[in-house]
Amino acid sequence: MIKISIDAMGGDHGPNVVIPALQIVATRRPDIRFAIYGREEVVRPELAKFPGLAEKSELIHCDVAVRMDDKPSQALRHGRWKSSMWKAIEAVKAGSADACVSAGNTGALMAMSKFCLRTMATIDRPAIAAIWPNMRGESVVLDVGATIGADAHQLIDFAILGTGMARAVFGIERPTVGLLNVGVEEVKGQEEVKEAGRMLREANMASMSYHGFVEGDDIGKGTVDVVVTEGFAGNIALKTAEGTARQIGGYLRAAMSRTLMARIGYLFAKGAFDLLREKMDVSRSNGGVFLGLNGVVVKSHGGADSAGFAAAVELAYDMVRNRLLDRIEADLDLFHARNPQSPAIRRSDVAADEEG
Amino acid sequence: MIKISIDAMGGDHGPNVVIPALQIVATRRPDIRFAIYGREEVVRPELAKFPGLAEKSELIHCDVAVRMDDKPSQALRHGRWKSSMWKAIEAVKAGSADACVSAGNTGALMAMSKFCLRTMATIDRPAIAAIWPNMRGESVVLDVGATIGADAHQLIDFAILGTGMARAVFGIERPTVGLLNVGVEEVKGQEEVKEAGRMLREANMASMSYHGFVEGDDIGKGTVDVVVTEGFAGNIALKTAEGTARQIGGYLRAAMSRTLMARIGYLFAKGAFDLLREKMDVSRSNGGVFLGLNGVVVKSHGGADSAGFAAAVELAYDMVRNRLLDRIEADLDLFHARNPQSPAIRRSDVAADEEG
Predict the structure, then answer these.
(1) Identity of the residue in A218, A266, A276 whose CB atom sits nearest the CB atom of B255
(2) Is there a contact between A246 and B184 if contact means CB atoms under 8 Å apart?
(3) In A16, A137, A209, B66, which residue has its Cα 20 to 30 A from B162's Cα atom?
């Protein structure tokens, strides 16, 4: 049995989307159980529609819900100890749930997750990992926005975290790992990327195959299984790709409705277009995973529908089932046993981060 | 008359692509003249195929050609004073050409351009600006990879440079300007972006309308006319968008050849697909523009065909015609007259940059 704690109040739609999503997952993953946190008067009626789900779920009433526009500091002030988001995370810490899923706002969820679960022993900063569809399948890209900037040691942490996730989610024994960089040679700066590259090559870890530097277009090509970068560039890459996909979708719709011939062609090829839409649909691989914490937290897209939220819950389930945290801890231990000096010389940002 | 100096030896195809491109431009821009730099024995026979073009062109033999895989320092060592790339740039410095176009390698072209033309008086670092198609038309995005990192003053320089380009190329009187940032609030770091935002708002310049922060997906939406960022994130955004466009193009081709119905639909909608391909074709808006130098240098994509190279030459022509440099200089003067302290407190990287 795997138990997932759910913040039912997060996202643009709340329980109306979350509860039907859990019903979808419950039919596909029979050994799953839910601890659902939210306002009883809105969640209970939704849950009543799915008696089979209700049997597998425990509903815990929470007065407070973190709002989508709360700043992280506001959310911590008003929602700590008592909000549905906090309680769902706390269930993971207490061991009463194996992982937590919320569609609530990213900043608040990260701030609460860090405060409640804390980072793993040798990890300075958590990362948000995205599952990114590419021409060969899917890859893990991190950090897509947990923090800005990363030194060489933090980039190596991200590489280990992302490798663990690729192994747990894709079932790849030894994922290939690339460091995101710019192609222009002899450009000044980003010394931390070069240093991380040197260290990863020297470490020659059994769990990952270090590929070298990759550029932005390698993400879509699927050159590597795990793409590592700091959160500013990673977030901009992710959002730019989403924007480009929407832009091309718009071109395509406009082109297919422009002439009678195009509209006829569209009707013939409708099956193909539906398949294409599914390929381009971000909700199929929905879920930003918070890595580097003492617990698994998955952030669903705030605007996701039930299919999207279900994908995020199944992602959490799969990572627990495949022992993500154990894999990561083993790799971190191995790396630090071989590189005993590395924790000492790293810059610690833990204290500074927790002020926010 | 506008005279453009051409490095005929750059790019993957050299004169075979460059010379036919010039012929295309010459028919569309009757008052254009060319100074063509390259190995006479390969350029002369190409030029002989277009007698009309030959009349408008001067061919200057250069023994040395910078290779596509030369590092910037190698190119400077072997190609300074004598390569076709160097001579084409030098023609702009000498005033015998109004602008320079090359499809040679970016790093070498930037190194030579900086060395030969130098940065404008108040500008620390040049930027590479891309013309980026979006859902509302086109925008200018910079820096897409000239240098890594930028402080607040350099971001403001980029905003002024990009504004001048948007005015000269798109004919917009007062372009909207956005600073690329991540959406997560209260994230630490990127203080330089926040400071640049404050300064741009306070400056309230007549030539630009400062919009505020934009995110990665705003580029494709066309939220602003000019998107400003430092070169690492900008390069990754550009390459990621290119990769995403190719990825979706691949999905589309696969979907349209999968079933008989889809293939029939494709035949009906072929006109629409051709239009779509044209929309997605990067060569239509080909050309990275080097801004912040005492002269206009346009970098054409190395793999561009003649239509693509022609687009780059016409971009150079349009910028000269619309007095790009005068506009930029006027705006820089205005900004620094109002903010007299700003050059003093800026960090100067000029010396460090020129070592590379």
Answers:
(1) A276
(2) no
(3) B66
Q: Which two tokens stand for residue A139?
A: 């890859």
CA–CA distance, A72 with A79 (Å, rounded to integer): 10
Chain A residues within an 8 Å CB radius of B268? 261-262, 264-265, 268
Contact by Cβ (8 Å): B104, B85: yes
How far is A46 from chain B, CA to nearest CA, in Å? 31
**How many Å lie between the alpha carbon of B116 and the closest alpha carbon of chain A?**
18
Task: Kindly report the nearest CA distance between residue A11 and chain B, in angstroms.
Answer: 16
* A269 closest CB neighbour out of B147, B245, B269: B269
**pLDDT, block means (10 residues), chain A with 356 residues:** 96 94 96 97 96 96 93 92 96 97 94 96 94 91 92 96 95 95 67 92 93 93 96 93 86 82 81 73 72 96 91 95 92 85 46 39
Q: What is the mean pLDDT of chain B?
A: 89
Of B123, B103, B130, B100, residue with least CA distance to B113: B100
A189 vs B265: CB contact, 8 Å cut-off?
Answer: no
Query: How far is Cα B301 from Cα B287, in angstroms, rounded to an integer?
Result: 6
Asked if the C-beta of B220 comes within 8 angstroms of chain A's C-beta atoms, the answer is: yes
pLDDT in tens, A188-245: 558 899 999 999 999 999 999 999 999 999 999 999 999 999 999 999 999 999 888 8
Q: How far apart, in whole angstroms, are the C-alpha atoms of residue A135 and residue A128?
A: 22
Give the per-residue pLDDT at A177: 97
Chain B residue with minimum CA distance to A236: B216
- Cα of A246 to nearest chain B Cα, Å: 8
Q: Please report the number of interchain residue pairs, chain A to chain B, with beta-carbon separation below 8 angstroms.
A: 251
ipTM of the complex: 0.85
Residue B104, pLDDT > 70, answer: yes
Q: CB–CB of A85/A106 below 8 Å?
A: no
- From B17, B111, B116, B102, select the one nearest B65 (Cα to Cα): B102
CB contact under 8 A, A184 and B353: no
Rounded distance between C-alpha atoms, residue B208 and residue B214, angstroms = 16
The Cα-based distances of B21 to B105, B168, B280, B281 in angstroms read 18, 23, 21, 17
CB proximity B137 to A under 8 Å: no
Paired strand residues for A298 = A101, A289
- Where helices occur in A80-230 by DSSP H, the ranges are 84-94, 106-117, 152-170, 191-203, 216-221
CB distance B315 to B169 below 8 Å? yes
Of B123, B149, B231, the closest CA to residue B114 belongs to B123
Question: A242 CB near a chain B CB, below 8 Å?
Answer: yes
Distances in Å between the Cα of A176 and the Cα atoms of A209, A219, A223, A226 are 5, 12, 8, 6
The whole-angstrom distance between residue B230's C-alpha and the CA centroid of its chain comes to 15
User: How close, in Å, is residue B250 to chain A by CA atoms?
Assistant: 8
Greatest CA span in chain A, whole angstroms? 69
- Separation of CA A313 from chain center: 11
pLDDT of B352 above 50: no
What amino acid occupies position B89? I
Q: List the single residue in A72, A187, A279 with the smallest CB-CB distance to B186.
A: A72
For chain B, domains (ranges, CATH) are 1-118 (3.40.718.10), 121-292+323-356 (3.40.718.10)
CB contacts of B135 in chain A (<8 Å) are 246-247, 250
Q: Which residues of B touch A232 (CB under 8 A)?
A: 182, 189-190, 233
